[in-house]
Structure formats: structure tokens, C-alpha cells
Amino acid sequence: MRISCGAHETVQTPPTYARWYKDFGYTGGIPANATLPSFVTPPLKTLRYFPLSEGPENCYIINRVPKGHYSVRIFFGLLEQPEIDNEPLFDVSVEGTLIHSLKPGWTNHDDQVFAEALVFLLDGTVSICFHSTGHGDPSIISIEILQVDDRAYYFGLEWGKGVILKRTSRLTCGTSKPKFDEDYSGDHWGGDRFWHPIRTFGQNADEPRSTERSIKQASDAPNFYPEALYQSAVVSIDGQPDLAYTMDVDPNKNYSIWLHFAEIDDSITGAGQRVFDVLINGDIVFENIDVVDMSGDRYTALVLNRTFAISGRTLTLTLRPKKGNHAILNAIEVFQVIASESKTSPEEVRALQALKKALGLPNRFGWNGDPCVPKEHPWSGADCHLEKSASMWFIDGLDLDNQGLGGFLPDDISKLRHLQSLNLSGNTIHGAIPSSLGTVTSLEVLDLSYNSLNGSIPESLGQLTALRRLNLNGNSLSGRVPAALGGRLLNGASFNFTDNAGLCGIPGLHTCGPHLSAGAKVGIGFGVSLSFLLLAVCSVCWWKRRQNILRAQQIAARGAPYAKARTHLSHDIQMSRHHHNHGHAHDIQIARHHHNHGHARTAAENGPSLLS
């Protein structure tokens, strides 16, 4: 994969028409027009730069990368803006391991306009990060991630998936033409290496040699060197029989040194005619090198490798003739051997990312890439420790006081299981203290003072038996301080709950009223609700009963005349009985009959009677 940074569309570049993909969606930063610092830089028109306002760490995180061994190469650029520092200095890391630091004057050296490393990528992603050092904004023209053979540059028992080879120098000798593997028609499994030309090691120190004859055993696995690499060389001369080259290196590091030979000098016709020793900083590392004898023939490639510890700041390579008076050398590769950094616990990285989002962490914090590595560039406010048994970094401290943070505390903060100190004081964080914080049993210092936290203090904080300092003052907390925390004060712990008007229950705070458990509060709430329901039912029943009484009174009022007629009839009958009790019974029956008949019509006319 090749990425053109800052590009809005995929492009192809001559002479090989390599395809460069646009980088939209990979990272932040700002796209801009590019100035190419060297003719070896890919001929691309854009770059992406990362101002410090976007944070000190900025990363490309590239997914769906097949597991394997890769050559990762980053070309640096210059902004077309004169007001911007035209030679930024910054650090580069791959998978959390620092692989390059730009040095002043890098724009004047063709082999310093890019960084390159051989790295194993095993988890399906690759992170490439740029770390500001306060000297200009990191500016990137291109990124290449090219797969190579799994055993490329195998150098012995120390080689492996936990090792990164950082390119220090790669020289093709006896020529003045810089070339990439693709220019040499090299195999793509070689990783399209760039070979910096060096025609001579010094004035009157050696002579170049070249040939157009084919070279055998050149492009073989696992390194697949281009054949043309061996078609030029330098050869020492009579006046200077030693062939010597000195380069700058970082001190106290291990270096893997690869030397390339092919006997292309017509004056040598067979084995035994040219024999020499190879010395590094004065120590013999290869003795009695006979290229024809060791490769099997003339015009046949020979590669020698040795890993060497360098204590000083220079590496001097010397070829000292023993037979034939002259030494020969076709190419040099030097890699710094770097142990891959252990990574931070993925669970804790996710927890910090959740915290970053919940608190609305400003861009100036960065918080991109790995929180703990490279060790030279940890995340701002994060303290880390390496657990060697697990080969993993963990977060043991967060110090983000007085940073203008808002938002809330997410439950995911409890996934920082190794946290010993958490200081978020002096911000405007609101909401409740998550009860899950009580599961971080390693916590010794918790300072959430002078925020806008509300609600009660979780009972779970009483489970933090290692807690020796707790500052919750200056918030809007309420309710009873958990008894377990109050009891801890007797054991010398330092707790501060002041300036929370609603807190109660320990000396220094006001006395709490009857304290109800959560279950009791639910019960009371249920009882009150039930009482309201019963009151409503009784009110409805009373209202309906009242309506029935009123309706009955209305009906009784309409039947009053009929009731009065019945009363008068009864009186007449009684009088009739009194006066005609003897001998007039028949008349009384007739009188009743006629009288009842007459009033039956009256009752019917006046509606139904309620009297019987």
C-alpha cells in the first residue's frame, strides 16, 4: 500500500506508475500543497501537516493489514508557506516503537528525507505516529507499507517478531546514480529499497568499477536484491590499500551490518587472487574474505552479515587486503536493531478513549496512538508502568486537574484496573460519581474536588480499602456519607467533603435526618401512590352515591300529589267505617270500589308510585 498524504484522489506517478491512494479518513491534520525536499521524494503534489494545536501526537491508524513482515517508509515534506518553519523536527514511531528522529539539516541529505523500518505486523492494523518536539509541525508527503519475505534480513537468534530493523544507511558503491529497487527492475518482495549512491569513499582513496555482465545468485530469497546492485563497486588503490568508510550512528546501540560483494574486476580471474579482512571500529569481524571462492565464481553475488554493538557515535568499516593488495565492495546496508515496545493493555486504551470522549478532552492533549509508548512521548496526564510478566503497559495514574474539562465520568473508567491515583480536580465535570469506580481496588488517591458533581456518594467507594486520600469538596453532592468512608477517618485517612451543602453524617457536616435505605424509599413511594389511588376510588364512590340520593329526591318530589291523595282516601274510609259500622258494609265496599277506581287514573297520570 502506498498513501499520498493530503491527496483528494488516487494518483499514479512515473516512471513506474506506482499507485498512490488518497488518505481521506485515515487521520486528522491539515492537507496542503507540498514542496519536495529532494529529487528522491515521490513526485506528489500534496502533504498533510499536524499543527501543535491538534495535539503533540498524531497518527495514521490503518486497518485490514494482513499479518506479515513489512517495509514501512515515510517521506517528509515542506510546506509551501514561508511563515511556517520550513524544516520541522519531530519523531516518528511505528506500532509504538520510536524509529526515527529528524535532525537539523535533514533537508540537505537525500537519504534523510525519509524514515524506513522493517517490522512485523501481527494484529491486522498498523499505527504510524508523528510526535511534535516543539520545532515546527510534522509534515508528511507519503507513507508506504510494502510486504517483504517473512525471513528477510534474518540475522541470527536475536532476530524475530519482537525486533524492528531501522534503516541507518543503504549505499550502492562505485556509481553516482541513486536508484530504487523498481528502477533496478528488482523483485517487489525486496520492498522497493532506496540505494544512495557513493561513487568513492574519498578523493584518491579508491576507484569505481562497473560491468554490464549479468550477476548470478543476486535476486534470491529471502532478500531479493536487484542484480544491478552488484554491477558496480569500489576498489582500493596501491596508494591506499585499505578501503574505509565512516558513518554517524546513535551510541550504545546494536547494529546489523550487511556487506555485498561480487567480483566484477577483470584483473581478478580466479580464487585466491584477492583476499581481505573486514573490520568494524578496528575489530576484525570477517577474516580472509575471498569473494570468488566464497560465492563460487566471478560475477556471483556474496552477502555477509554481522550484528555489532557500537558504543560511540561513529561506525567505521575497513576492508584490509591480505592478498592482491586491493579490496572490493559493492554495497553496504546498516540497520539499528530495536526491540519492539510492549503495548498498553487494549482494555485500558479503550477506557481512556471513552474518558476522552466523555470529558470532551481538547485537541491540544492529542491522546492518539498508544498512551504509554514510545516512552519518550506518553499521553499528557497519563502515568504508566510496565508489567514485565505480562509484557504489557498499564495506566497507574491520571493527572488532569485544572484543564477546563467538562462532560461526565463514564462507567468505563472502572476498566482502568491498575489506577492508583486519579486527579480531575478544578474542572467543570458534572453528573454523578459512577458506582463502578468502587471496583478499582488499587486506588489510593481520588481527587474530584471543585467540579459540578451531584447526587450521592456511592456506597461502593467504601470498598476502596487502599484509599488514603479522598477529596470531594467543592461539588453539589448530597445525602449521607457512606459509613465505611466515615470510619476510615479514624485510621488516619485524609478525606474532604466540605462545600457540599447536601452532605451529612460525619463530624464537620450537619446531622442527617432519619436515614432510609433504598428499599424503604421505594416502599414509601409505593405506599403514597396506593393511598392516592384509594382516595381517588373513595371520591368516585361518594360522588356516585350523592348523585343517586339527589336523583331519588327528585323522583319523590314528582310523586308527592299522588301520595297526598292516598292519604285522604284512607281518612274517608276510616270515617265511613266509624259512622256506618252497623248495617252499611255493602255500601262501604261500593264506596271503596268507586273511590279506588277514580284515583287509579290519578296515580297513572302522576307517574309510578313509590308508596305501597
Structural commentary:
This protein has 612 residues and is α+β, with helices and mostly antiparallel strands. It contains six helices and 36 strands. The strands form six sheets. The chain has a 15-stranded mixed sheet that branches. A six-stranded mixed sheet has the order 27-28-29-31-33-35, with no helix packed on it. It has a four-stranded antiparallel sheet with strand order 6-12-9-10, with no helix packed on it. Helix 5 packs antiparallel against helix 6. Mean pLDDT is 87; it is low at 562-612.
Could you list some keywords that capture this structure?
elongated, alpha+beta, 36 strands, 612 residues, six-stranded mixed beta sheet, 6 helices, single chain, 33% strand
Short description:
With 612 residues, the protein is an alpha+beta fold.
How do the helices and strands line up, and which of them pair or pack?
Elements: E1 2-4, E2 11-13, E3 18-22, E4 30-35, E5 46-49, E6 57-62, E7 68-76, E8 78-79, E9 89-94, E10 97-101, E11 114-121, E12 126-135, E13 139-148, E14 163-173, E15 179-180, E16 194-198, E17 206-210, E18 232-236, E19 243-248, E20 253-261, E21 275-280, E22 283-289, H1 291-295, E23 302-310, E24 314-323, E25 328-329, E26 331-339, H2 346-359, E27 382-387, E28 392-399, E29 421-423, E30 430-431, E31 445-447, E32 452-455, E33 469-471, E34 476-480, H3 483-488, E35 494-496, E36 502-504, H4 518-558, H5 560-579, H6 585-605
Parallel strand pairs: 1-3, 14-16, 28-29, 29-31, 30-32, 31-33, 32-34, 33-35, 34-36
Antiparallel strand pairs: 1-13, 2-3, 4-5, 4-8, 5-13, 6-12, 7-11, 7-13, 9-10, 9-12, 11-14, 14-26, 15-16, 17-18, 18-25, 19-24, 20-23, 20-26, 21-22, 21-24, 27-28
Helix pairs in contact: 5-6
